[in-house]
Model the fold of this input.
Amino acid sequence: MANPGTLAPAVAANRDMSGPRGAKPKRAFSRANIIVYGTLIVVAIYYALPLYVMIVTSLKGMPEIRMGNIFSPPMEITFEPWVKAWSQACTGINCDGLSRGFWNSVNILIPSVLISIAVASVNGYALSMWKFKGSELFFTILMIGAFIPYQIMLYPIVILLREAGLYGSLTGLVLVHVAFGMPINTLLFRNYFSSIPEELFKAARVDGAGFWAIFFRIIMPMSLPIFVVALIIQVTGIWNDFLFGVTYISSPDRYPMTVQLNNIVNSVQGVKEYNVNMAATLLTGLVPLVIYFASGKLFVRGIAAGAVKG
Done:
């Protein structure tokens, strides 16, 4: 009978000769990978190409633009179009560029975002954890408002603002943005708060914490990702808005940045300066881009953690 001690090396050798076990590794350049990555590259180029054209055009002088090759990089980089777009471009009789519209947009954006997120977060908190009589009906009515086209509400809101003495003012436009941002933000907060373990909420109630104590000390510290989601959605929607700005603001001195951009691009007086138009467009889009890239990871976490779950 063979000694078990002499069999162990033979068994190990047989295992080594049989080769590695487990799933066969996938090839890096398989047909599926080529299709997936090829499609992603094509889509990325499709969306990045207009941005590239805008950037290189904004850095060229008009003589170089007239040569006709819009895809070539600038032979001589100039930031004069950016300076002119910011402080010298004419929008009607005013020739102070986008700077005035920028500060108007800031004065609209900050209170609109803060008020809408504050109220919507409390709404979502109450609807998810403090059920009251008629809460589901209230939530249903609120959600119906999220699917009503803005264009249908333009004229009724004009009448409401006129009767309240707010038509044409920045305050009236702030209230409009708050009202239209409320349904979707309430939905986001309600769904996110519903994903928080109910036992945590009950334990806080047992310890004597009330409505506001639970909200500020427990819920808010755990909910940074969803606040970032709401922030990005509101900033993008409010900053890029054109329809409400041109409808509810009556004085050109109070126009937001997007309305001024439209006036600059569509101006028919003098020479059409494409480099200034491109620089003005990029300046108008910088704020949402900066906020998104600064908080993109938290945005993804908020979406993945229940922001769009029903």
